[in-house]
Design a protein that fits this description.
Elements: H1 6-9, H2 22-34, E1 40-44, H3 51-63, H4 77-84, E2 90-94, H5 101-110, E3 121-126, H6 133-144, E4 150-156, H7 164-167, E5 171-174, H8 180-194, H9 200-210, H10 214-225, H11 234-241, H12 246-255, H13 261-273, H14 278-298, H15 308-317, H16 323-335, H17 337-341, H18 346-359, H19 366-374, H20 431-441, H21 450-461, H22 467-472, H23 474-484, H24 486-492, E6 496-501, E7 504-509, H25 514-522, H26 524-534, E8 540-545, H27 548-551, H28 560-570, H29 572-581
Parallel strand pairs: 1-4, 1-5, 2-3, 3-4, 7-8
Antiparallel strand pairs: 6-7
Helix pairs in contact: 3-4, 5-6, 8-9, 9-10, 9-11, 13-18, 14-16, 23-24, 28-29
Length: 588
């Protein structure tokens, strides 16, 4: 007789033998006992968890000669025919190979005929999601109202690809991944019966490698049974499957506190030269940090799926790491996984990644930073900051102009406005009336322009202004300009008070900022007005070009980058935050 692989030889023969799917088998057994069976079922879940096995068990139970059958007897003619795969009334169809509309039409034609020797004609369609759209549509009517002797059982690993119109006509059962401990217990039963020498830790390693699939775990055990006649230890299982010893991950985490680049590079080189798959190494390192996080968060190792030896190591090493740091390590690894997988120089990427993990700054609680900020002494405002504009009023030390008596011949007038400032409904005064007003209130000499008159009046009452006065209040001027024109204030920041000659202020601009200088010169009248009204400095302005580097001139108003750098150097807490959170680059 030909050799039968363990995955087929140990296929469950009763519902109780199906491991890890009690929520499904219990419901099916109750339905069989109460004779409440539906006509269409769909089993969904990962590979190798028992979907097709449960479908065959259900088909055998429905047609078992011992009725009512909660479990198939596996002794009658019908049960043996299904087990051996030659039953005429249990038809298994591969959805990937029979996905067209023609195959479904043949199914619809054949389903009308009564079963050959059984009570029900059962159609098991595996990987049903592979059927075409037309095939699903052709199946709808038959699936909703099949003959009384017909039962459909669908199995799929991709339930989201099955149309909702099909799902709504079926009873859905979701199969889950089998826990590692359950797989290890079943493998131990098989190993003892088949006389395969293997220790418990080796079985746990196989179960983890199977990732919840009983079929995969049984196939791996079958493969390892042929690899050695001696007892299969953890080391032999790792060697046969190309797995990485967990001690290698503990070796790396021991390097983190040392922060020695040479040791990290030597470690990465050793991993590369030993021939380990670097992506598998990365996945193992992620699981290693996850185990440390679980041991740290729960304070125990009961949830870890590993041997007792490594559980003790995790219990010992977990308190050395903070939970926030472990989360950050896992985040770094997951973000760089694709980079390592598709890189043309994986050794370099591995070295950089391990160095990044080692040199990652430790996390600091936000509460600690806030406490540091609360305990800081008051410090002066950083250089370059703009103080708020002062309230309008007489400046300290400046002479207060005497009040002007009201004129007896003319009423008080509002400040002069141009004709464009008046609304269109107000008419301009007639020429004769305006002439009469000038004769009574103005001197006989030719009347100067309004700007010249204002400048002359203010100049007579305000003492001369020197360059130090202007430089000392330059930030106030920019703040006042910003209230009216933000763009003009930003251009004015590039200028520096250079010289005061009489009532003329020269503002120096570097030749690199010629556009800004032109814009400031075009808006000179606005700046002059603000200087006179807000600062009490009736000056005319003139923009000139000066080589700042040659003259040794520095701008009084700093750029945001310069102000940030100055603030960082003066504030130790801000500097600490920048170092901890790696936010030196402002553009990021």
């Amino acid at each position: 007789m030909a050799y039968i692989v363990l995955a087929r030889k140990w296929r469950p023969l009763t519902f109780e033998d199906v491991a890890g799917q009690e929520h499904v088998t219990r419901t099916l057994m109750n339905a069989l006992q109460q004779q409440r069976m539906g006509h269409a079922f769909i089993f969904a879940g990962p590979r190798g968890v028992g979907k097709t096995t449960a479908a065959r068990l259900l088909a055998k139970a429905l047609n078992c000669e011992t009725q009512p059958a909660i479990n198939p007897c596996n002794q009658c003619k019908s049960c043996k025919a299904v087990t051996e795969g030659h039953s005429l009334d249990v038809i298994e169809i591969d959805g990937a190979s029979n996905r067209g509309i023609d195959e479904i039409r043949n199914l619809r034609e054949n389903i009308r005929f009564s079963p050959a020797s059984s009570r029900y004609k059962v159609y098991i369609i595996d990987e049903v999601h592979m059927l075409s759209k037309e095939a699903f549509n052709a199946l709808l009517k038959t699936l909703e109202e099949p003959p009384a002797h017909a039962v459909f059982i669908f199995a799929t690993t991709e339930i989201h690809r099955v149309p909702l119109t099909i799902l709504s006509r079926c009873q859905r059962f979701d199969f889950k991944r089998i826990p590692t401990a359950v797989i290890a217990d079943r493998l131990q039963q098989i190993a003892e019966f088949e006389k395969i020498p293997i220790d418990r830790d080796g079985l746990l390693l196989i179960s983890r490698k199977a990732e919840g699939s009983m079929r995969d775990a049984t196939s791996i055990l079958d493969q390892l049974a042929s690899s050695s006649a001696e007892t299969l230890t953890v080391e032999k299982v790792q060697e046969a499957l190309g797995l990485i010893n967990e001690e290698l991950f503990f070796e790396f985490t021991d390097l983190i506190p040392q922060k020695e680049d040479a040791a990290v590079i030597r470690f990465a080189r050793a991993v590369f030269e030993q021939g380990h798959d670097l992506v598998n190494f990365l996945h193992g390192l992620e699981e290693h940090f996850r185990n440390l996080l679980i041991a740290r968060a729960t304070g125990s190792t009961q949830l870890l799926e590993t041997s007792d030896y490594f559980k003790n190591l995790y219990q010992e090493k977990a308190p050395l790491f903070a939970e926030k740091d472990l989360l950050h390590y896992i985040d770094i690894l997951t973000q760089n996984e694709a980079l390592l997988k598709y890189s043309e120089n994986p050794q370099l990427i591995l070295e950089l990644l391990l160095l990044k993990l080692v040199h990652k700054p430790l996390s600091v609680a936000l509460e600690e930073l806030l406490e540091l900020l609360k305990n800081l002494p008051d410090s002066p405002a950083p250089a370059g900051s703009i103080p708020p504009a002062p309230n309008p009023g007489p400046q300290p030390g400046a002479p207060t102009p005497p009040p002007q008596p009201p004129s007896s011949s003319a009423p008080a007038m509002a400040p002069f406005r141009s004709a464009g400032d008046y609304p269109s409904s107000v008419k301009e005064p007639s020429k004769g009336r305006f002439d009469s007003l000038k004769k009574n209130s103005l001197p006989a000499s030719p009347a100067p322009s309004t700007a010249t008159e204002t400048e002359t009046t203010v100049a007579a009452d305000v003492p001369p202004v020197n360059l130090a006065d202007v430089s000392g209040r330059w930030n106030e001027l920019i703040a006042a300009i910003k209230k009216e024109k933000i763009a003009l204030s930003s251009f004015l920041q590039d200028g520096v008070p250079y010289k005061v000659e009489g009532r003329m202020l020269q503002i120096a601009f570097d030749p690199k900022t010629g556009f800004h200088m032109d814009h400031v010169q075009k808006n000179a009248s606005m700046i002059e007005r603000v200087m006179a009204q807000e600062l009490g400095m009736p000056l005319r302005i003139k923009c000139i070009k000066v080589q700042f580097e040659q003259e040794g001139i520095q701008r009084q108003v700093q750029t945001p980058e310069e102000a940030f750098e100055s603030m960082k150097n003066k504030e130790p807490v801000l500097k600490k935050i920048i170092e901890l959170f790696d936010c030196e680059n402002m553009d990021e």
